Amino acid sequence: MFSKLFEMLPDAEHLLSLSAEELAGPLLVSLEDREQIKPNEVISYRSMKWEIEEGSSRKNPNLNYPHNIHKDVLHGLMEAWQWLEREGFVTPMPTNTVGYSTTATYGTEYFISRRGEKIQTLEDYEAYRKADLLRKHQLHPIIAEKVWSIFAQGSYGTAVLEASKQVEIAVRKTGGYAKRDYGTDLMRTAFHVDNGKLTDPKQETAEKQAMSDLFAGAIGTYKNPSSHHEVEYAPEEAAEIIIFASHLLRIVDACKERIVNLST
C-alpha cells in the first residue's frame, strides 16, 4: 500500500496538508489490489517504516517522510480510512457466509465496495468528488433527469444553461404562454404584480415584485449570457446555480397547483 501511496504523495508535508476527504482518494487507489483489508495491519507504523527505509526510498530519491511526523501521517491516513468507510467505499467483510445467507456479525476485515471499485485512478476520484457536489436525489425531478448527468460529465456551463432553460420551459408551460415568449420578458409577464398568471394574489405587492425580480434576475443572469457565448463555471459554483434552479422549479410547481385549485 505505502509503495503506491508514496508514488502519489512523496512529500509528507503535502500529505498532511490534505483533508481526510482529499487524502481518501490516494488511499483508496493504493488499496485497489487488495481483496481483504485489515486497517490496523495495512496502515501500520511497521509497514510505513519499512517502505520508507527499504522500499520507496530506493526508487524515489525525492521521498520526504521525516521520522518525527510518522505518527501524524498514520493519524491522517486513519482519518481518511474512516471517511472511506462512512461514504461506502470500503465495507466490513462478512465472517460467516453459507450459500446466500450472511450472518450479521462482522469481523475486522474489509473489502472495497462496488462503489470503491469504480475508483481506479486519482482522476476517477476527482470526477467522483465533483459529481458528488450535486446530490441527484435532492434535486427537482426535472433537474435530476435533464441536468444531473451533464454536470456529472463535467460540462458545467452547459448544465447551468440547461437548468435555466428548464425553469423557462416550466414557467411558459404553466402559464400557457407561446414559444415566442422567453427570457426575462416572459418572467416579468408571468409574475407581473397585477395580472401575472403565476403571481400569487394573496401576496403583498412588494412580495409579488420580489418574486418577479427573482425569476427575471435568475434567467437574465444564468440563461441569457450562456445562450450567446460560452461561460465557464467552477464545479462548486455550477452546483449552487443548479440547486437554485431546482428551487425555482419547486416554486413553479406550487404556482401550478394553485392555478389548478382555482380552476376547480
Structure description:
By secondary structure, this protein is mainly alpha-helical. It is 63% helix and 6% strand. The chain has helices at residues 2-8, 12-17, 20-30, 39-42, 45-59, 70-86, 114-117, 122-131, 141-146, 148-152, 156-175, 183-190, 205-228, 235-263; strands spanning 90-94, 97-98, 101-102, 106-112. The longest helix is centred in the last third of the chain and has 29 residues, at 235-263. 30% of the residues are buried.
Keywords:
single chain, mainly alpha, two-stranded antiparallel sheet, 264 residues, elongated
Strand order of the largest sheet: 1-4
Q: Radius of gyration in whole Å, from Cα?
A: 26 Å
The parts where pLDDT drops under 50 for at least 5 residues are: 100-107
Q: What's the total helix number?
A: 14
| Averaged pLDDT | 90
Q: What is the makeup of the main sheet?
A: 2 strands, antiparallel
H-E order: HHHHHHEEEEHHHHHHHH
Q: Label the structural class.
A: mainly alpha
Compute the separation of the termini in Å: 67 Å
- Dominant shape: elongated
Number of strands: 4
What amount of the residues lies in strands?
A: 5-15%
Helix content: 55-70%
Quick synopsis:
63% of the residues lie in helices and 6% in strands.
Task: List the topology elements.
Blueprint: H1 2-8, H2 12-17, H3 20-30, H4 39-42, H5 45-59, H6 70-86, E1 90-94, E2 97-98, E3 101-102, E4 106-112, H7 114-117, H8 122-131, H9 141-146, H10 148-152, H11 156-175, H12 183-190, H13 205-228, H14 235-263
Antiparallel strand pairs: 1-4, 2-3
Helix pairs in contact: 1-3, 1-5, 3-6, 11-12, 11-13, 11-14, 12-13
